[in-house]
Structures are given as structure tokens and as C-alpha cells.
Specification:
With 573 residues, this protein is of the alpha+beta class. The protein has two domains: 297 residues, PAS domain (Beta-Lactamase, 2-Layer Sandwich); 149 residues, Histidine kinase-like ATPase, C-terminal domain (Heat Shock Protein 90), CATH 3.30.565.10. Helices cover 53% and strands 17% of the residues. The protein has a five-stranded antiparallel sheet, sandwiched between helices. The protein has a five-stranded mixed sheet with strand order 11-13-14-16-15. The chain has a four-stranded antiparallel sheet with strand order 7-6-9-8. Strand 15 and strand 16 form a beta hairpin.
Amino acid sequence: MKTKASHPRNKGKPQALSIGRSMYAKLLMFFTVIALLPLAVMGYFSNHKSSQIVNSQFGSYGMNAIEELKLHLDTSIAQMDNITGNLLNYLISTPMVIEDGGTLNYSRYKEEQALQRYLISFETVNIVSVSVVMPSGKFIGSGGLDQARLTDSSFWRQVSGNGRRQVIIHRPDYYYSFVNDNMVISLVVPVKDHFGLPPGSRILIDTKADSVVNLLRAFQHNMNAHLQIRAADGSVLLQSSEKYSSPEDDIVWSGVMEREGWTVEARMPHAEFYRSSGVILNYTLIVAGCTLLFAIAMAHFFSLRLTRPIQKLTHSMRRFGQGELFIQTPVLTSDELGYLSQSFNRMTGQIQDLVREISRSEKLKSEAELRALHYQINPHLLFNTLNSIQWKARLAGRRDIQKMIEHLVAVLESTFAVTKTLVPLEEELALVLHFIEIQRLRYDDAFSFKLEAEPELMSCLVPRMVFQPLLENIFFHGFTDGAGEIRLSLVSGSGEIKAELTDNGIGIKPEHLLYVRNGQVIPGKKGGLGMRNVRERFNMHFGENCDFTIESERNHGSKVIIRWPKTYGEIYP
């Protein structure tokens, strides 16, 4: 069974994406936790403190309402007790006899009128009436009382059957002009020592209870609570609502009046008491939720902003590792991540240049090997043939031919030493001298050659067979019949060697100079590969650390300048 192989480029994408997502998830979680922790702590303490303040204010308001209600009741009852005391003092200090019913003589009438004027003098805005009510129902005091309604009222029947002091809060229905819906506080005091009054007489004082009722209503309206006043026996004297059921979990404020022993109690439902703190909690949660959503959005934005360049760089690095050497990652920021992206792009660019240089070097090497194969001959056959010619020249007495062949053999031996790529400068210059001697035997003394080289450079390495092609160009293209001057100088620089080869030949035509400098074949001309081969061999061994310059002026000669690093050591093939 055949299986379809996946493309190598696709293998790294899921992992690169997972790396980006992992970094994004970690940063998002980090920013969210950093935002959530102070938000939760601040929200908790803010809600707790606010709830405490609100609940404390509610409690203070409830207790203040109780205390204010107690104060109003105590003040009203104390005022009525003072009136009672003043009235009894008046009765004691004023000799009078008040009769219950019957026809009054003039003196009794005057005594009753004086008592009535005294009683009416106590009436104020809040004191509705101060009256003395006799057993028959006859009363002396405010003219607003209706005797028949008073004696028939349930209120009077309740208090007249009791021989002690009583304070009752009720709605009076025994006045002519008083609004019956209004509440009053009634004080009923039996007159035990007659003080000139008929036996069984009672002092009746009615005070408006408007302030008390208003406090009850305000408390009920503001706090949605129930307020009641209970007597010492537990009976309810006054309450804000008769339908309130008084659950057990109510929040209760209560206080006992010192004068009457009444219990003033305020009750507020548990849910109502904590409703404000619940509202604070809800708003706190809403604000915290909105803040958290905003924090998550900002965390998402910054996490994505941080991880996107990392994800892009990771993806580019993975593709580069899979063989896409020309990949470039986008530079999205100007911070450290942007610097990393720029460094990656520079690194890939340098690797691309290196790959091109290696490819170029391999291509040059292959071409050189191919050219060597094209021109390869059997060296043994060549040397044997030259040795035979040399012996024939010696037997014939041709010393010049013999010397020429000796020098040619030396040059050929160096040429066929293909295993040596770098040789000492001393060996290369010896080859140059053999070549010059061949040309001297050929052209006699038509040319002059001058060699200048510093002795300490002799052990430095140089590519093999680099000067001989340049000298051939001078004889074949620069000189006419071998006539001219040649100078080769080698000097030491700062870590480099400078070779300068000059001649005074015809030079290179300006239109051909550009081709020669670029190592190209001149159109319509043969040859031209010697100088190119020399340049390529220097570049192959020393790369950008060497320099090859050609200067020429027509009919004034040419100059070739070569610079390469000083290199010492063993000779490697």
C-alpha cells in the first residue's frame, strides 16, 4: 500500500501556531490575573466597608427615631403632668366648692367661671383642652367638649372604671370642632382628695399627638418599617400599621420610656434592612464585571500585540529550518522583538550570500576541473618526448634549445602538480623565473625583467600558477616582438601582501578594458581566460579578503595590482 507523504513545509505550521497560541494564552492569563486580583480585593473591601457604613447609618437612624419618639412622648406627658400639678395647687390654694348638677347660686357660678378661665389658660397650640369632668358627666373647661359624646365614648367608659392615673393615645370623638381623625394623648387623673370637687371627679388633659404620628409615618415611609408603642401590660397603644405580622428575623430597635414604662419599638424586615447593601453589592459586581471585561479586552490586545511578532518570527524560523533560505520575517514593532526580527533577516541574508558564494565557488571549481579534463594529457608521454628532444639538441650542439627545454620542463612540472592549490611565494617566483628564461631564449634580450620581493614574504602562501598567465598576457598582447620592460614587486602591508605587475606595452583598448576587468571574453577575440582564472583562484581561496585591480592606458602600458592576506602554514592539497 502506498502512502502519501506530507510536504515538509507543512510539518512546522501546527507546532509554530501552537507555540504562538501557548504564549498568547499565558500572557492573556497573566494579564487577566494581574487585573483580577486587585479588582477582587478592592471590590470586596469596598463592598464590605460600604455595607458596614450603610447598615450602621440605618441602625443609627432607627435608634434616633426611637429616641426622638420617646423624647416627644416624655415631653408631652411631662407637660400634662405639670399642668395637673398646677391645677391641684390651684384647687388647694383656692377655697371653692363645685357642685355636680343642680341650680347654682351666684357665688358658686363665679367659682366655676374662675376655675374654667384658669383651665382654659392652659390651652396652647398643642394642648387641645384641660377639663375637670364630674361623675355626672358635667365638665368645666374647654367649650369644645361635647358632654354627651364624652360620656358615651368608649374611651371615657374605659378610663372612668379605673381609679388610677392613665395616659392613652387615641382618636377623640367628643369634640365639636376638633378633627376626629387626629390623634391625641389623653391624661386622666382621678382627684382623690376632693379639693372642693365632687367625689369621683377626674382631670382630663388632651394634647395633640401630631408630632408623634408624623414621626411614625416618616419612619415607615423612609425605611419601610413598622413602629409601635406598647404599654407596660403589652397592649398596643399606637402603631404605624395594623397589618404588620412581625417576623422573627426582623431588625428591631426598642427603647423603654422612663416616665410611663412604655416600650417604643421599631421593626424592619431583614431583607429591607440589607437591601441597600445588596444594591451596593450588585453595583459592585456590575462595575467589577465591566472592569474585568475591559481588562480582558486590554489583555487580549496587548497579548496579541506581543505574541504576533513572536509567532511570525517562529513561523519564519521553522520555514527557514525546512530549507526556505530566502524567507524574510516582517518587522512589526520597533522594540526588542523588532530587533530580533531584523537580526533574523540579517542572518538569513548573510546565509543567502554565503550560499551564493559557495555555489559560485563550486561552479568555478567545476568549470576549472572541466577545463582541466578538456586539456588533460599524459604527462609521462610529454616529459619523455621533451627529454628525447633535449638529448637530440645536446648531441647536435644546440645549447639554447637544451636550456629552453629545461626551463619548459620545470614549468610543466609545476603545471601538472594539480594536488597543490597553495604554494609558498618562493616556489611561485621560481616558476616565474623559469618562464622568463624561456621567453629570454625566445626573444633574446628584447625585453627587461625586474623582480623585487621582500625576503620575509617568501614563506607566505599564494595560489599556484597565478603570475605565469599574467606574464603570458604581456608577451602575447602587450609587447611587439617581445620588446618592452616588465617589473614585478611584492611588498608587505598591514596583514596583507601587495603584488604589482607593470609593463610599458601597448596597453588595453578602453572599449576592451571593462570586459577584462569583469573577467569576460572580449567579443570577437580569442583567449582572455588567463586573467579571469587568476582572479577566480584568488577569490576561491581568500574570498572578499583579496582585491584584484587592472589599470591600463593605451600605448603606455598596463598595471595589475593584487592584494591578499598573509597566510602561513602547511600546504594543503
